[in-house]
Design brief:
about 0% strand, transmembrane helix, membrane, about 40% helix, transmembrane, 5 helices, about 180 residues, mainly alpha, single chain
Length: about 180
């Protein structure tokens, strides 16, 4: 069982592994380890002071891997899933195993959707994004000698400007539709 101090059983015994893999378990015997005089070897001592760790309270439904029977005892709470990106993220965790590429591709897509959502959210805030200062263009200096990532300079305007151009295009189309009605 996950998150308990019990050591999981090996699929093969140590003797089978040693016979199959040359050099496997060279330090398995505690007497062969350099730290043995100081090391207190107790195979029954796991180091954990719990049978099952105390669980962090789940304040809202968190996404969890389908490989796990329950949510991990400790999890992050700084960026709760929200909006369309949160729905994509929850779908990825609910539908696909972590071993599937679809799981990770959906998480990457949700990250990009979150970036667009954040940019669009900044348009309606009192402090919208400032692409000039946020890209670090002003840190380039007069000849651009101080930056180590000069190879990205050609793509930076496209990556930074795309959400702004998309937002402006959507706003223009919305205003145009409202004016025609």
């Amino acid at each position: 069982m996950a998150y308990t101090p019990d050591k999981p059983k090996l699929p093969e015994t140590s003797d089978e592994l040693r016979a199959r893999i040359p050099g496997w378990g060279a330090d398995l015997d505690p007497r062969d380890r350099p730290a043995v005089p100081r090391e207190q070897f107790d195979p029954t001592f796991s180091g954990a002071h719990w049978e099952f760790p105390e669980r962090q309270p789940e304040l809202w439904p968190r996404e969890r891997s389908i490989e796990h029977a329950f949510l991990t005892p400790v999890f992050g709470t700084s960026c709760p899933p929200k909006g369309l990106s949160g729905k994509i993220r929850r779908y990825s965790y609910a539908r696909y195993s972590e071993a599937r590429a679809a799981h990770w591709l959906l998480l990457l897509a949700s990250d990009r959707v979150d970036a667009v959502e954040s940019t669009l959210r900044s348009f309606v805030s009192r402090r919208p994004d400032n692409p000039v200062t946020e890209t670090g263009v002003l840190a380039d200096g007069p000849r651009g000698e101080r930056r180590a990532d000069k190879g990205h300079h050609l793509l930076d305007p496209v990556i930074v400007a795309a959400p702004w151009v998309l937002g402006a295009g959507l706003a223009y189309a919305l205003i145009r539709r409202l004016v025609r009605q």
